[in-house]
């Protein structure tokens, strides 16, 4: 059989297995946990919703649209060998994976935290996991499947395009479909990167003990590190710490007793209008001057 047909069949077979996995997540785990949550004995309903994110929409899309369309192409293959047009038509819907992927780490944390807090919740999950349909795998393991699905489409399609004969009627469509899947994967990766960036901001915010706009999503941490502050009055240096964001420089002092925050913010300088000038100081090498609207600092790097 032609190589491209084998790949098209593999796509169909893996999609069938994937829809079964989605059915397990949405119709078994989510439905049963939600039912229990409504009784008020295990966890709040909100927690269950947060764990499963938009899994119901993903399941519905694959079970009712994607899989039936792929089945149709399999049946028509002998007189119309193509999958490119189908994937093109359905690829835009795969953007909904961004939300699921972005939520994944938080979902796993919630499962762990609530399993410790609520024994009935833990017991219900363990009960479902013991069923044959779970194949001895954990809920977390099954939840990873949607995260890995888009990269899997990308690999299969790449392979499919590579194996297609140059004159194949599906070449143009398949190449366009691959491009679209690539964009969806990028969208999914961007969602992960954005989530990590906000988590890093949150960590910095906790280290600084600030309760204001550091966690503004438009803020970006560029660099951080220790620095020496030069005191011209008594010709000495003292240890300080800098956080450089895209819009501000935070000049901090490490706390001696680290309870709660790690640093105390002494000065916040706007990046706008800030000037940095290197100094040629023989006594203090690697020194530079940072001057902004708020103040001028003489600093020494390592």
From TrEMBL:
Record keyword Cell membrane present: no
Compartment annotation: Cytoplasm, Cytoskeleton
Keyword Phosphoprotein appears in the UniProt entry: yes
Source organism superkingdom: Eukaryota
Domain DH: 3-191
UniProt GO cellular component terms: cytoplasm; cytoskeleton
Alphabetical list of InterPro entries matching this protein: DBL_dom_sf, DH_dom, FYVE_RhoGEF_PH, PH-like_dom_sf, PH_domain, SOS1_NGEF_PH
One GO process term, biological-process aspect: cytoskeleton organization
Domain PH residues, every copy: 220-302
Keywords for the protein's UniProt record, in alphabetical order: Cytoplasm, Cytoskeleton, Metal-binding, Phosphoprotein, Repeat, Zinc, Zinc-finger
Protein name, as recorded: FGD2 protein
Species the sequence originates in: Zosterops hypoxanthus
Organism classification: Eukaryota, Metazoa, Chordata, Craniata, Vertebrata
Gene: Fgd2_0
